[in-house]
Amino acid sequence: MAILVMIGFLISFGIRSNIGIAIVRMTKGKDGKKGEIDWDRDTIGNVESAFFYGYMVTQIPGGLIASKYPASKLFGAAIALSAILNAFFPITSKANSQITIFVRILQGLAE
């Protein structure tokens, strides 16, 4: 069980941090090369921090829910939902930054 939890936390941390790495390649850099997405620094900051807005809100409710349901099932469901939402990132980032921010908030709520 401990190994599965470790793998779950690795996935969770990867999902949490991969956007910061991907945005560097997806957006226009300081060297002037144009990326796929034309976001300014404020939008990039909002997308990167949106996860933590949702994450912050669910800490206490998550503890209460975990006292009523098996923590292992909740943990697995949270990782699965966050991974599914992470798959939508390329689609939403090309569509609209506001939708991307909303998906990142949902990821934070899931975890």
TrEMBL record:
<feature type="transmembrane region" description="Helical">
    <location>
        <begin position="6"/>
        <end position="24"/>
    </location>
</feature>
<dbReference type="GO" id="GO:0005326">
    <property type="term" value="F:neurotransmitter transmembrane transporter activity"/>
</dbReference>
<dbReference type="GO" id="GO:0098700">
    <property type="term" value="P:neurotransmitter loading into synaptic vesicle"/>
</dbReference>
<dbReference type="GO" id="GO:0030672">
    <property type="term" value="C:synaptic vesicle membrane"/>
</dbReference>
<dbReference type="Pfam" id="PF07690">
    <property type="entry name" value="MFS_1"/>
</dbReference>
<keyword id="KW-1133">Transmembrane helix</keyword>
<dbReference type="GO" id="GO:0050803">
    <property type="term" value="P:regulation of synapse structure or activity"/>
</dbReference>
<protein>
    <recommendedName>
        <fullName>Major facilitator superfamily (MFS) profile domain-containing protein</fullName>
    </recommendedName>
</protein>
<feature type="transmembrane region" description="Helical">
    <location>
        <begin position="74"/>
        <end position="91"/>
    </location>
</feature>
<dbReference type="InterPro" id="IPR011701">
    <property type="entry name" value="MFS"/>
</dbReference>
<dbReference type="GO" id="GO:0060076">
    <property type="term" value="C:excitatory synapse"/>
</dbReference>
<dbReference type="InterPro" id="IPR036259">
    <property type="entry name" value="MFS_trans_sf"/>
</dbReference>
<keyword id="KW-0812">Transmembrane</keyword>
<dbReference type="InterPro" id="IPR050382">
    <property type="entry name" value="MFS_Na/Anion_cotransporter"/>
</dbReference>
<keyword id="KW-0472">Membrane</keyword>
<dbReference type="GO" id="GO:0005313">
    <property type="term" value="F:L-glutamate transmembrane transporter activity"/>
</dbReference>
<dbReference type="GO" id="GO:0035249">
    <property type="term" value="P:synaptic transmission, glutamatergic"/>
</dbReference>
